[in-house]
Design goal:
single chain, 223 residues, alpha/beta, TIM Barrel, 7-stranded parallel β-sheet, 8 helices, 14% strand, globular
Amino acid sequence: MLNVCIDLENWQDVINIAEGNENVYASVGVHPSEAGKNKLTIKDLTSRAQKEKVIAIGETGLDYHYGKDNKVKQQEFFRQHIRAAIKANLPLIIHSREAREDTIAIMREENAGEISGVMHCFTENWQMAKQALDLGFYISFSGIITFKNAQDLREVAKKTPLERTLIETDAPYLAPEPYRGKPNEPLYVKFVAEKLAEIHGLSHEEIARHTYENFFDLFEKAA
């Protein structure tokens, strides 16, 4: 599994968990909600990315739902992450909420397609998913696809090619049915896989195989 970093203050704990567990990997990045609270340089990211268990840059991106007053700093941090990812030759983990146009625009302007990555905990429409796919990115679905009011997102999941699909928990948030509203944990990723299997009309085992292989196709450093 990939334990995703959201700020540099807690990065040491993230890498310690990865280094202490054979099948756990880490990323390094600053979540958009944390942008501007501290200074960030490309070197801050690339120096940490040299660790053997660090296989991605992020979580990064744009969140205009909670950060409407911080757009400029978010965009600056996002660009720095993309540049660091290209320099480190590692894929990106991108968060985007209510920022579709700006997210895709910056990805294009900064040539994010050179190193690819994943649109993490995807909740947007098919148009955005298609634009990200065209840039070589993967789409990752969380427990949200099990929610009763998430039919539109399930349609996006159905259209997303299996060879570009990943699954996640986003723990401790967004626990899937039947645990919605409770703390999420890695164990519950199986419910996401089961719902995805239902959406595609495939077996749970087939979805597990696809998403397992996709993980190592994207995060080559873990292979």
